[in-house]
Amino acid sequence: MNTSFADFSIFACNLLSMKSKILVIGACGQIGSELTMKLREIYGNDAVVASDIVAGNADLMWSGSFEILDATDKGEVREIIEKYTIKEVYLMAAMLSGTAEKYPDKAWKLNMNSLFHVLDFAREGLIDKIFWPSSIAIFGRNTPQEHTPQHTITEPSTVYGISKLAGENWCNYYHQKYNVDVRSIRYPGIISYKTLPGGGTTDYAVEIFHKALSQGSYTCFLKEDTRLPMMYMNDAIRATINLMQSDKIKNFIAYNIAAINFTPQELATEIKKHLPNFEIGFEPDFRQAIADSWPHSIDDSEARKDWNWVPDYNLESMTKDMFLNLKS
Ligand code: AKB
Question: How far, in Å, from the CA of 188 to the mean position of ligand 1?
Answer without folding.
Answer: 7
